[in-house]
């Protein structure tokens, strides 16, 4: 059978082939056509070579990628895949062949601007892309922050700053069982929250061959459809489980004539692997990176000489920090799940496929046309001491080793629905910090408001802007007296506000301004002075260590705590509302709360990015950093509604468009729909598509 490539009215690729391998090759080829620049950026990020064409701004990431050994781990995992699952390894190889074919002669304008020529993908490159995309998903740098808080404020203060903090990614998802829908079949809906990127991190795609016919959201650079898919008889979706499955170890290292040694828990010094790599930096001198790996894992911070400004441990030895993460230990990234997911016909098939999942650790929901449903955690979380999950632990002390893997929890439906929004749900035994319950509670309440739901009703939930987390600050405002007339009027206005963070709301803008002023005043208090200057850790970890953002995301805890290190919170709130009353924002929330997509290379003609509704704790989670910026770099990286009654009634949308090529008619054509909360129909009828070519 000839492999055929079709497009629908939104430029979404629909691929039809005679075998899974031919289809993977076509997927790689069409992805390279649509996302050539994105694919090359991701390949270089996985290899730690992005500074070679992006310059010094990319050096911090490249250092981390080299020291964490991402490329080497991808190679190891692919070698294990060849050994354990040769069919999947060949399928991944077919995808890579297609990518190389599609990249050949690419005319993406970014290549000319940077002087970059597309390079060759290797069979393990998709595994490297997956690993680089998700290595920070579990938020292990939060352990560095907890060390700082414990050192300066005491261990009891750690919980005050617990929140779905900077750098992490979440999602909304909900499953409505057939007993609660108008069709009698289940509906699954939601939206993954990630950095909004241009091109987007998710690719809408349709893959069809004699073995399977699946629509879903693919990760460009990775074959198949891992996170969100619908085969016609079964559909699945995921959210971040907020599990803790990566550990940081404080290492004692010393140099010897033969290299570097690390102190092990048995008191013996043992040889650590060591070599040096060179990072090329466009327009600057090359940078040497020392790569060290102990029996715990790669050293990602410091070395035998420690860090400038980093105190030695009590023994007088400089200290380094290593990272232990499951794929480096097991040689498995979970790619063996990808083909079984495409071939799934029933919930039981999806369940078995996710038994092979590795990382990131996710909460999975699935439903099929026979009425079966699934609500479970999938992925590898090591069994180890509880202190490993909280803090950086000493590598030289026994008791911090991994001792196997947690069984992944399961849950059911309540009143015919299941809601997942990174809250303490089924994954609670596996994590430390979870998202506040506001999004999950709001979705649950909205679903309870109607006895029967349809796929068409789901966008109203996607776009809900009610901000429950405003309550503690509004309660503090309500308790104030003796305000100036201007501040009293502002307080009364906010107390009458409907608590919706709509883009056209002047009240939302006023609330955000007061919140930001409170955050800045709390962060500037002398009680937190020791946290204002983070340790001299690599730049890639700084978002987790910034005091203002930490205060901004933990504001609820800080305002509600019984006592806060002598901070006069009523005075801080009073000063904040007086400040805003003197200089109130002139416009509406969307004037400052604007889309700010991440781009590896800024466009020659900057876009006038739109204002957004929503906020960090709204169901419509468009996230700035309170106290620092209202601009939203995180938000719904896609929205989906999977209808099990009739797949053609399913809907989806991405923030920008199907094409990653600037100037393409499908580069940003979905943006107006995404802003309005509208969705694009899922098309599976080949007669409604335009044939592009045979390959």
Automatic annotation (TrEMBL):
EC number, UniProt record: 3.5.1.-
Entry keywords, A to Z: Hydrolase, Zymogen
Cell division among keywords: no
EC category: hydrolase
Cross-referenced InterPro entries: Ntn_hydrolases_N, Pen/GL7ACA/AHL_acylase, Penicillin_amidase_A-knob, Penicillin_amidase_dom1, Penicillin_amidase_N_B-knob, S45
GO MF term (any one): hydrolase activity
Entry keyword S-adenosyl-L-methionine: no
Regions that span the bilayer: none
Database matches in Gene3D superfamilies: 1.10.1400.10, 2.30.120.10, Glutamine Phosphoribosylpyrophosphate, subunit 1, domain 1, Penicillin Amidohydrolase, domain 1
Name of one Pfam family that matches: Penicil_amidase
Family listed: Belongs to the peptidase S45 family.
PANTHER family reported in the protein's UniProt record: ACYL-HOMOSERINE LACTONE ACYLASE QUIP, PEPTIDASE S45 PENICILLIN AMIDASE
Name of this protein: Penicillin acylase family protein
Lineage, opening ranks: Bacteria, Bacillati, Actinomycetota, Actinomycetes, Kitasatosporales
């Amino acid at each position: 059978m000839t492999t055929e490539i079709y497009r629908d009215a939104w430029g979404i690729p629909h691929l039809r082939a005679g075998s899974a391998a031919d289809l993977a090759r076509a997927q790689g080829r069409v992805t390279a056509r649509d996302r050539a620049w994105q694919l090359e950026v991701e390949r270089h990020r996985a290899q730690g070579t992005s500074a070679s064409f992006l310059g010094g701004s990319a050096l911090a990431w490249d250092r981390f990628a080299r020291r964490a050994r991402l490329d080497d781990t991808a190679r190891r995992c692919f070698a294990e895949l060849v050994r354990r699952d040769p069919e999947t390894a060949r399928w991944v190889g077919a995808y890579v062949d297609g990518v190389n074919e599609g990249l050949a002669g690419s005319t993406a304008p970014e290549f000319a601007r940077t002087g970059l020529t597309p390079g060759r993908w290797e069979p393990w490159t998709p595994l490297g892309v997956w690993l680089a995309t998700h290595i920070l998903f579990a938020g292990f740098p939060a352990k560095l922050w907890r060390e700082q808080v414990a050192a300066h404020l005491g261990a009891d203060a750690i919980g005050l700053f617990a929140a779905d903090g900077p750098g992490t990614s979440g999602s909304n998802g909900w499953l409505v069982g057939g007993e609660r829908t108008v069709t009698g079949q289940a509906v699954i809906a939601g939206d993954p929250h990630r950095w909004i990127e241009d091109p987007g991190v998710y690719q809408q795609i349709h893959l069809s061959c004699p073995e399977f016919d699946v629509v879903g959201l693919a990760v460009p650079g990775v074959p198949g459809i891992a996170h969100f898919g619908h085969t016609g008889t079964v559909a699945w979706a995921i959210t971040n489980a907020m599990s803790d499955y990566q550990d940081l170890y404080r290492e004692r290292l010393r140099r010897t004539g033969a290299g570097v040694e690390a102190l092990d828990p048995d008191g013996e010094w043992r040889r650590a692997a060591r070599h040096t790599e060179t990072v090329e930096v466009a327009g600057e001198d090359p940078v040497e990176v020392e790569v060290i790996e102990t029996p715990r894992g790669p050293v990602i911070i410091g070395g035998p000489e420690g860090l400038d400004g980093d105190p030695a441990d009590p023994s007088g030895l400089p200290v380094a920090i290593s990272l232990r993460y499951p794929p480096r230990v097991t040689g498995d990234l979970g790619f063996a799940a990808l083909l079984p997911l495409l071939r799934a016909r029933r919930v039981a098939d999806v369940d078995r496929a996710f038994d092979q999942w590795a990382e990131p650790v996710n909460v999975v929901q699935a439903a099929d046309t026979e009425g079966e449903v699934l609500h479970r955690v999938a992925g590898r979380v090591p069994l180890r001491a509880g202190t490993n999950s909280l803090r950086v632990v000493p590598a030289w002390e026994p008791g911090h080793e991994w001792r196997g893997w947690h069984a992944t929890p399961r849950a059911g439906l309540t009143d015919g629905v299941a809601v997942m929004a990174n809250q303490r749900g089924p994954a609670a035994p596996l994590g430390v910090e979870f998202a506040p319950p506001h999004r999950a509670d709001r979705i649950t309440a909205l679903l309870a408001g109607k006895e029967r739901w349809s796929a068409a009703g789901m966008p109203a939930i996607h776009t809900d802007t009610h901000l429950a987390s405003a309550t503690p600050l509004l309660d503090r405002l309500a308790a104030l007296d003796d305000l100036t007339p201007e501040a009293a009027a502002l307080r009364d206005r906010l107390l009458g506000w409907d608590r919706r963070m709509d883009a056209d709301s002047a009240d939302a803008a006023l609330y955000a301004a007061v919140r930001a002023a409170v955050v800045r005043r709390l962060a500037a208090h002398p009680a937190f002075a020791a946290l204002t200057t983070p340790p001299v850790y690599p730049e890639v970890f700084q978002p987790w260590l910034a005091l203002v953002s930490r205060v901004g995301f933990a504001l609820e805890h800080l305002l509600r705590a019984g006592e806060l290190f002598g901070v006069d919170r009523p005075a801080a709130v009073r000063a904040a509302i007086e400040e805003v009353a003197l200089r109130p924002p002139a416009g509406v929330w969307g004037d400052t709360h604007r889309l700010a997509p991440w781009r590896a290379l800024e466009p020659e003609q900057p876009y006038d990015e739109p204002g957004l509704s929503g906020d960090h704790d709204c169901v419509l989670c468009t996230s700035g950093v309170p106290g620092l910026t209202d601009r939203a770099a995180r938000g719904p990286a896609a929205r989906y509604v999977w209808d099990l009654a009739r797949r053609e009634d399913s809907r989806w949308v991405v923030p920008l468009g199907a094409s990653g090529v600037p100037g393409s008619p499908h580069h940003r054509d979905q943006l107006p729909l995404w802003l309005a909360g509208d969705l694009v129909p899922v098309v599976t009828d080949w007669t409604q598509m335009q044939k592009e070519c045979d390959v």
